[in-house]
Amino acid sequence: MPNLLDIFLLKMRHHRLIGHGSEAGALYIYYSSRSVSDPFSDLQNYVNSLRRIEYPVDELEAVLDRAASGNNKTVIIAMVNKAYVKEAGGGRTMLDLFLESFWEGEGTLPLLDHLVVVAADQTAYDRCRFRRLHCYKMDTEGVDLEGEKVYMSKDFIEMMWRRTRLLLDVLSRGYHLIFTDTDVMWLRSPLSRLRNNESLDMQISVDSSSVGGHPINTGFYHVRSNYKTISLFRKWYDMRLEWTGMKEQDVLNKLLDSGFFDQLGLNVGFLNTTEFSGFCQDSPDMGAVTTVHANCCRHIGAKISDLTLVLGDWKRYKASRVNSKWSPHVECGRSWSDAHYIPKL
Predict the structure, then answer these.
(1) pLDDT given for residue 151 in this prediction
(2) Rounded distance, CA 112 to CA 135, Å?
(3) Which stretches does DSSP call E strand in 89-161?
(4) Which has the closest alpha carbon to 330: 300, 293, 297?
(5) Gap between the Cα atoms of 343 and 345, Å rounded
(6) CA 322/CA 183 separation, integer angstroms
(7) Residue 145: pLDDT above 60?
(8) What mean pLDDT is predicted for residues 266-287?
(9) Three-state DSSP class for 78?
(10) 151-199: per-residue pLDDT in tens?
(11) Distance separating alpha carbons of residues 279 and 307, to the nearest angstrom
């Protein structure tokens, strides 16, 4: 849309140049269908006409707008590729388990209306559309993100940075977001917990609630859109060029330790593992747990196996309301020593 000052200067240029060649005539024909005696009136009328034009909305904005409806401009974002939506040997997929957790959770089913599934390839996008979710196909030009990206592989790191760039775009559009990996089981709605303290700009999960540090995990976090968080995400994404070969989670940890959060005046909260738990540190209280993340696990096959047990534990708890221990995460423990594992294509 033309800038007011630019239009005004063109108008003034027209009045100075009438009678001095064809360029002035062209300007006169374009801007002067009315009398030129009142250029400011013409300018205002022209600007008003521009404001009545409906400019096209891009696909991402349209998806975000639908998903944020009725939810305080907050969206839940998850990212998948072919490996997360295709069955292995006729079994379940990671996306299956993720969506089932919303069905089995308490107060979680309505949250699917606010979920945006970001697809890294066409297969994932088609599967998302088949499930009638809010779907967006991410731009992956120049890189293949289709198959399984094993933890800390080159393609895994690239996928994490592409994700960070997309989330920066979402925040820059004025949307608050909850990012969740699809290996996070949503057993209770986290919204009241996350919105309880509006002074916090960002709340992020941790691998363990230990004394003397916060080993953050970017598999689940809540971010409010404001100038501080947008500045953080811009800096975070730019640092990939300085700290090459590092995954985005480690780079964010470095920014936290360096005092950059304090420089921005950014208030951050760390989500305790009693409510926002994971395989690194189980929640001791099924009556309080909100999410369970298959962190400290290397590959998709192991995650699917152990998360299936998590959902079984949760169903038994719902039926009895008796707190008990979670099933051991055996396959995820073995995943670190599985030298013969072949990633899903």
Answers:
(1) 46
(2) 12
(3) 115-119, 134-137
(4) 297
(5) 6
(6) 25
(7) no
(8) 96
(9) strand
(10) 445 666 777 788 999 999 999 999 999 999 999 999 999 999 998 888 9
(11) 10
Region for 267 from its dihedrals, namely left if φ exceeds 0, alpha if ψ lies in -120 to 50, beta otherwise: beta
Look up residue 209 and give its amino acid. Answer: S
Q: Which two tokens stand for residue 50?
A: 């521009």
Query: 3-class DSSP state for residue 146?
Result: coil
Report residue 35 as tokens.
């009398």
Q: Of 107, 271, 290, which Cα lies nearest the Cα of 200?
A: 271
Contacts (Cβ under 8 Å, ≥6 apart) of 263: none
How many other CB atoms are there within 10 angstroms of residue 318's CB atom? 13
Structural domains of the chain sorted by starting position, each given as residue range(s) with its CATH number in brackets: 4-51 (no CATH), 59-335 (3.90.550.10)
Best CA proximity match to 221, nearest among 181, 263, 279, 275 = 181
Nearest C-alpha neighbor of 148 from the set 80, 100, 77: 80
| Burial (0-12, 13-18, 19+ Cβ within 10 Å), 320 | exposed
Contacts of 173 (CB under 8 A, 6+ apart): 60, 61, 64, 225
How far apart are the C-alpha atoms of 237 and 248, rounded to whole Å? 8
- End-to-end alpha carbon distance in the chain: 45
Q: Tell me the pTM.
A: 0.80
Which of the two residues, 26 and 344, has the higher pLDDT score? 344
Distance from C-alpha of 178 to C-alpha of 74, rounded to nearest angstrom? 7
State CA 169 to chain mean position distance: 9
What is the radius of gyration, based on Cα positions, of the chain? 25
pLDDT of residue 238: 93
| Tokens read off for 300 | 């998709």
Query: Where would I find the beta strands (DSSP E) of the chain?
Result: 74-80, 115-119, 134-137, 176-180, 184-186, 202-206, 216-223, 268-271, 276-278, 291-293
Q: Identify the DSSP state of 123.
A: H
Q: Decide: 187 and 199 in contact? Cβ < 8 Å.
A: no
Interacting residues of 161 by C-beta distance below 8 A, sequence separation 6+ = 237, 240, 248
Q: Are the beta carbons of 182 and 94 closer than 8 angstroms?
A: yes
The tokens 């995650």 sit on which residue?
303
Chain center to CA of 133: 15
